[in-house]
Request: fold
Amino acid sequence: MSTWFRDLPPDCVALADVAVAVIAGAALIRATRRLRQPAVIWEIATGIVLGPSVLGVFPGHLDTRLFPVAQRPTLTAMSELGLVFFMFLAGWEMNPRLLRSGRSAVAVTAVSAMAVPFLMGAGLAFALASDHRGHTSTSAFVLYFGTTMAITAFPVLARILRDTGLDRTPVGVLSMTCAAFGDGIAWCLLIVVVAVAGSDGAGQVWHTMLLAAVLGSLLFGLVRPLLARWAAGTEQEGAQGAEPGERRPDMAVDTAGNRAFLLAGSFALLCGCATAWIGIHPILGAFAAGVVMPRTVGPRIREAVEVPLARASTLLLPVYFIVTGLSVDLKTVGWAGVGELCVIVLVAVAGKFVGAVVPARSFGISWQESGALGILMNTRGLTELVVLGVGHDLGVIDDRLFSIMVIMALVTTAMAGPLLRLIGIQAPGIPESPAELADAPSLSGSAGTAGPDRA
Reply:
């Protein structure tokens, strides 16, 4: 690459890098549309191609010239902003009623689908720790690796269920329940891992956990009721001046929607700031902010919040894939790494299948639906990539295992569509971009009850 690019002002280089990330990702997604894979697959692949694994192979270190090391902190900050909005929307998408289901079949399957892959992953972690543990303790490595195996990408799962028409079927509700429960526990475990990995001793770990508990209590005990009152007031404001049964005036909706957008966006950022301040990753605060958001907001107000946040996330997330791809170097994996990749993929897939299919069959669910549940639980997508990025940044895992785990996330997510079609369930397209998730109808009413959740 010519030297003129390196001589550009730093801000110019950073903005050009963002444009390259967005255009390259969009181009690859469009070129591979017929393969009917989630968009996240090709976005991750774009990051790997533009990183040292592919672009870095060519003479002249093209990857470092296109994405200079000096500009990577700026790119990382931009990508984290996109992640904060994405995790906020993912938390808002979750249905708390699913977690409160009292049916024994749902409860047992949800616990099993989380516990079995976690335990299998933790067992495998003991064998990998000597070669791949970073500068943290073995206990943190084992806890973290088990968590990565238990992750299910809630957003991509929701989209698959919509595309296949399974969102209001028993297996669809069951899979959403398992994913919601598993991801909730996984994020709690990740808080523990971050506290352990980022602390100098047991005293600091307990201090971080105490602050996290206080923050969680404030969010769910104080902020959530206040947000519920705000949501009710927003609906009343939008309804003023309209006759019963009529649509609210567009002017009132626009005004209320703009205020709701500013409030929600600021709330996500402040929660991310709070968790970063106490020593936990900002995405965990953003996710918690989404979970405590009220479900009583009307569809037009909710759209006014979700759509712009999703568009902003869509613009900035490709930068995250580039930043991640710059840390993935497949040249360092080697033949030993290929063997480890096969074992990790096998354990990841088997853990989810055993954990989901066995209890489902024991409660009389058909083989086809049980198999679909096991397949759906293996969709890891961007959620897995986020967890991997947190562990890699903290030094819990080394560079080689990080590269292997990114490939594992790609493989297990990519296999969902073909395997569903193999067992007779059609998946016409499985995109996973925040904008597409916002455009689709909410699953908040998919809990098998009459009407949407109003928690």
